[in-house]
Amino acid sequence: MAETRKASRFIVPVAVAGVAAATIGLVPALAASGDPDLPEITAQQLIEKIAASDTQTLSGTFRISTDLGLPALGGLASGFGSLDGDGAGSGSADPSEKLTELVSGTHTLRVAADGPERQKLTLLDGSDEYSLIHNGDDVWAYDSKSNEAFHEKGASGAPEKEQKLPGTPKELADEVLKAAGDTTSITVDGTAKVAGRDAYQLVIKPKQTGSTVESVKIAVDAANGIPLKFTLSSVEGGKPVVDAGFTKVDFGKPAASEFTFTAPKGAKVTEDAAEKGEEVPGDLPKGFEEGLPGLGEVFGGSGSGEGPDVIGEGWTTIAKLDTGAPAPRTDEAPKEIQGFLDSFGDKVTGKFGSGTVFKTKLVDALLTDDGKVYVGAVTKDALVDAANAGK
Length: 391
Fold this sequence. Notes:
By secondary structure, the chain is an alpha+beta fold. It has helices at about 1-10, 10-15, 15-20, 45-50, 75-80, 95-100, 170-180, 290, 295-300, 335-345, 380-390, and strands spanning about 55-65, 105-115, 120-125, 130-135, 140-145, 150-155, 185-195, 195-205, 215-220, 225-235, 240-250, 270, 310, 320, 345-350, 355-360, 365-370, 370-375.
């Protein structure tokens, strides 16, 4: 029991990998060879084409590879054991647990969509499949390996959040380019062939130094403006942080049967606990998610006066949190966890005192020994400079 309590103190630094994953939009992407000869187009015109696209149906297969630059997990799982004390995983088909597998490695998925009310995603793992189906008010998830299903019923009559959106594709394009401002370069850099489709390459790069992002490349279907490719590259080089892409795509209407689901005989079905007003094991405490900076805040937002302090702007934005408690000592962790933390954590010192920078290829986090946390898609030096300036 003491070992379990000790392990639980190290969830925050290990979760840096999860923060990195949360900042990545998993837009399907993978460029094939053979660059098509297409009419010239400006970045603004291409953004307008994306905004003007009215394609709502598609089906296909894509592959996603994620490389956050983390060390091998090795015995990490056994080091944590079961934080709920039973020594076994929950085995739940809950999407919030299953889809975390996309954080690392290479995966093949099948997708289908028929407007905003019907979508299906299937994660293939050898002969096993994990499917997530949205059909109207129902969301089903099914894991063929464990023969378990998860069901969530959409809330009816809930008031929609008011959103002010640009009225035309041109206005939307202007807003995107305006938001980029002086910190971002947006260009069209050639063409690509993606799943047999002609596509333009939209390239987004930070102009600021100190960001971990080298570039974001999006291949946009030349005919209908649908994004087909997303590649996020780090200044560290090597494999892209995210490289995901269609290997096959069809923009026809999928059959209605694609979105129907009935739990197989003998399957264990779990109804959404939150729907019944229960606390969901593993969920963040209420209000915690609201306190974290969203993608817009990390890449160019401004502080709202709530949640973390926001330092800087654009691509080098850093969120600062004060936990109010000394950082956990890694030498007190179970040896498997200690080895994992030490392998991607660097001890640093400065005017702020001392601490540890936990690094991925995208998001880095500085945990100071006096309990402050600095996190962003920035380099180690940028985090240390921010901590020093805060003294």
